[in-house]
Design a protein that fits this description.
CATH class: Alpha Beta
Domain GDPGP1-like N-terminal: 78-250
Distance between the termini: 42 Å
InterPro entries: GDPGP, GDPGP1_C, GDPGP1_N
Radius of gyration: 22 Å
Number of domains: 1
CATH topology: HIT family, subunit A
Family: Belongs to the GDPGP1 family.
Helix content: 25-40%
Keywords: Cytoplasm, Guanine-nucleotide releasing factor, Hydrolase, Nucleotide-binding, Nucleotidyltransferase, Transferase
Number of strands: 18
GO molecular function: GDP-D-glucose phosphorylase activity; guanyl-nucleotide exchange factor activity; hydrolase activity; nucleotide binding
Strand order of the largest sheet: 6-2-5-7-8-10-9-14-15-13-12-11
Amino acid sequence: MMLRIKRVPTVVSNYQKEDGNEGSRRGGGCGRNCLQNCCLQDACLPLYAFKKVDSIVSKKKGVGVFEYDKGEPPVAFLDSLLLGEWEDRVQRGLFRYDVTACETKVIPGQHGFIAQLNEGRHLKKRPTEFRVDKVLQPFDGNKFNFTKVGQEEVLFQFGASEDGEVQFFPDAPIDPENSPSMVAINVSPIEYGHVLLIPRVLDCLPQRIDRDSFMLAIYMAAEAGNPYFRLGYNSLGAFATINHLHFQAYYLAVPFPIEKAPTKEITTSDGGVKISELVNYPVRGLVFEGGNALLDLSNGVSDACICLQENNIPYNVLIADCGNRIFLLPQCYAEKQALGEVSPELLDTQVNPAVWEISGHMVLKRKKDYEEASEENAWRLLAEVSLSEERFQEVTALIFEAISYRSCVIGTDSENLLEDVNVEHQLVEEVNAINESSHQAMVTGNQDCLVLH
């Protein structure tokens, strides 16, 4: 089945900047109108203030089924604002290529993998500037980061409303003392509406998930309220290309294959979060859903991510179903590349299996691979990403141990919690103790890679 990446009509018209404002924003500073101190004085950008919620009511009728009473999903204000501003940047010529010209199709077969031919992304995407063997690396301001982008690439600031209601301010000051989170275009897009969510951009956080940043990503998924809109995260070592904290997001009007994959329930946390394991899918992973409150779901996943980070295990995250359902996928493709365990045939495709590919949206860079795309080929590539069954069970046990420890800490009374000022460090030490017997060895290959045996 052929798909067409199409422009989505908006209900609210684009916010159009007045010529005078635009001119003043481009003047002064370093001349690049960037997000650094040189250009931030008196700078203003739109602000979308979202309403914090305790839970999400799904608009879907069933897992992997995208049906609405009146056909297409309703267009919420955030959708309209995001897509309207994104289209404005298209008209300004800020993207490196026209993603709407990319061919896309659903590959025949049981799983419905999606193939896209995107030669422009291969030729013009920013190269990775850091090692692939360490999930946690310090922020380096000398390398590319999001403070260096032009303010014209930012669609709006995104933060919690002070009065508990959704608000929109078309011209809000940027406050360097209270670092704002921002939504910006991805100049090398995969789909129409492809954006980046950059938490506390001026704090220059490295690419590592923390509780607050992950909660922000879930709030964005909930606020969009559209199951076609998903957010993804790639850790270092799992094909993140920029070491500055960010999530990606875009619209795709069909289910991802991973969303349709069957699952086997493992446990339910004290906070009501159901944790399951993917079944009959090429990449082994965990699925988190539900929870007594949105914070329970967010904290459960973020604690699992922190555990993986601290143990140098690369991973990807997909936030789906308006924030109700989250996929956590530890992976080892870069490790296998370093060990020379990936076949030359797969390496020749130059496909980097990050969150979108792992979820089933295969971004192909050669016309030959697109024309020959099959379910068998997609499965074969993704199977190389997955941990072995034995290693996956070890990592799952590690995650559950970390989640359980954190739950015990949070369950203590506040007096004890205040006395324990080193809770975070103790958590890391205890989790690392579980892996004390793991042998770490540096190997060489296409890249140096730290391998856990």
